[in-house]
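User: I'm new to structure prediction. If I give you an amino acid sequence, what do you actually give back? Let's try with this one:
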Amino acid sequence: MRLPNLSAADCDHEFKQFQIGDAGHGLQLWGRPIIVMCVSVALWLATDLLITLVWGIGYVIARAAYVTYLRRQSFPVRPVHIVLASAASVFLGAWYGAMVIYIATLGEGEYILLSCCGAMGLGLHCLSRYDELSYAALIDFCTTLATALGVLVAAAQRIEPMWTSLATLVGGICVLIYFGISFRDIVTERQKMKRSMLAESQDEKMRALGQFTSGVAHDFNNLLTVVNGNIELAKIDPEGIEAHKYLEEAHAAGLKGAVLIQQLLAFARKSKIVVSDVNLTDMFSRLLGLLQRVLPAHIKLTLDACGNDIFVRADPAMLESALINLVINARDAMGETPGEIVISIDPFGAGDVEIAVRDTGPGMDDETLARATEPFFTTKAVGEGSGLGLSMVTGVVEQCGGRFELSNRGRGGLSARIYLPLVDLGTCQESA
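Assistant: Good question. You get back a string of structure tokens that encode the predicted 3D arrangement of the chain. For your 432 residues, that looks like this:
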């Protein structure tokens, strides 16, 4: 068999088509051999013809060897492997088809019906397996036509008178022609559908990428505007009482920029997670001032935690970034509406700590809540968000051995909860 100008990628693709057609899983893999073996045993018992039993056993053994070859062949493959797979497929098809035709010659009625069912099984295999005219598909198609034509001729020979036999033969050939046209049309439509789905998937990726880059550019532009503006104000009056405030705001914007960079690195899986024992009490004492500065005056920030040290296993820098993200998301959700953001730290279960960020905003509808942690998904306008915040939080928490959950609060607003493994917990007492 000569294979013209097949590249390595073409060889891999063609070989995978043989795997799809003949080495699937479950019913696809075991269905035909089991049916063949059952039919061969039944025919042997009914006709006392040993050849039917030999046929079934030989087919099952040959098919098992063929499937083993298909599954164990490593990629990339060479043209010789395509030739071997094609030869094995032709051999199995001929073995199966010859016995189906032989059954049609054994007698009247039930034997012809049984052979018709065997040919129909080949046809259903062709129609259900392939979405392109590969070597595997063409071999199975030719096997089906040859088997069906053989059964048709064997059946027509037993029909009298001759004109009825001839009419049966012509009608059967027309059915086979219609099967060939249908097979081509079905495969062509599947190819078009596959290409359409690939094109649609690519368009979705490009739209997501456009939204992502636009959101990142917008976020960085806002941060640079804050940094540059505050630095200019500080330069105008370096000795004034407001200079320190301007520099603090520029520093806070710079930290937010670092958080955004951490989001990008976490999403690209380029950031290195270094898990250690983190003192949540110390962390929140450091973060509280920064978090209050990023919130407008109409939003109150409250920390609800015991005064004792609570240690969890996490990456401190990434955990800080995740918490800042949750607070900023809560701020953006509340908008200009006065409200409150509460951060609480509580023991959970036998060995976890729950860090919850709860706001009094509008919450999320069910559809938005279900997709909130997907990469690139955002409810903000185009250019106003990258859609990476919550997906980054989820990734960081899971890499630290914890989990992240979102839910709407019964009184309105959203509850974002991080669960992390507990290292040590002092006795929590109500702080005055």
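You can read the tokens as a compact description of the fold. Here is one thing that stands out. Strands lie at 276-279, 299-304, 310-314, 339-348, 352-359, 403-408, 414-425.
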